[in-house]
Design a protein that fits this description.
4 helices; about 25% strand; Gyrase A, domain 2; five-stranded mixed β-sheet; alpha+beta; five-stranded antiparallel β-sheet
Length: about 230
């Protein structure tokens, strides 16, 4: 077992979802099953478009009858809040944004004072108070760790409203329940899962020498670069 280290994650925010209909409201929107919080302390989930495209990913905890959504901060948090308000309509639901959330990712070992990251063991643990008994490392150390292990990071790795969550293996990272029933985008997610329709997937590639590049062209202007030697 290695010695655990931690990093302070950048740009996180928290949206609180409460009210008498908070559970029903959120359960009908997100990809994972809120009932899992009866047996575990934190879950990973997404909010999709009606056509099953990626919008947001986040972690959800529960405090009494209030759900706490740990999401990307800044404009992304504001956009998520706006989307939730759009779905709220007349439901008895309260939505509150805390635009500054301290989040610490612990990896390379175990820690008994943090939430076990629900994605997989490689991700380690997640804490909302800063650890005082282990070494802090810079953000790039965590970023390299997650990239090597093919762990996507929200809108940094997905194209919002265009990417499918299967392209980042989020179903394998415990972000999706196939038994909970309906949610926004559920039909497409289920179809891709059962029919194996995923055509592309995020993969880690390491290039160790100089690589030739060529222009990638179409009938329009140049649209990018293609690697011609790996």
């Amino acid at each position: 077992m290695h010695n655990p280290v931690y990093v302070e994650l950048r740009n996180r925010a928290e949206i609180s979802v409460g009210g008498a209909e908070g559970h029903k409201f959120l359960q009908g929107l997100v990809t994972n099953d809120l009932n899992l919080l009866k047996s575990q302390s934190i879950i990973y989930a997404c909010l999709l478009t009606a056509h099953g495209k990626f919008l947001f990913d986040f972690f959800i905890r529960k405090n009494a009858e209030t759900y706490l959504i740990d999401c990307e901060g800044g404009d992304r948090a504001s956009a998520l809040l706006k989307k939730l308000k759009m779905y709220k309509l007349r439901a008895d639901v309260t939505l509150t944004l805390n635009d500054t959330l301290n989040v610490y990712q612990i990896f390379n070992g175990t820690h008994d004072k943090a939430y076990k990251d629900p994605r997989n063991d490689v991700c380690g643990f997640r804490s909302y108070t800063e650890p005082t008994d282990i070494q802090k490392v810079d953000f790039n150390t965590w970023d390299e760790h997650r990239i090597r292990n093919e762990i996507p990071d929200g809108s940094r790795d997905f194209i919002v409203e265009k990417s499918y969550i299967h392209e980042g293996r989020l179903d394998e990272l415990n972000a999706v329940s196939y038994t909970k029933g309906c949610y926004v985008g559920q039909e497409l997610v289920s179809r891709m899962h059962h029919r194996g329709l995923t055509k592309k997937i995020l993969k880690y590639v390491e290039i160790t020498d100089d690589t030739d590049q060529s222009n990638l062209r179409s009938s329009c202007n140049g649209i990018g670069l293609v690697v011609t030697k790996i």
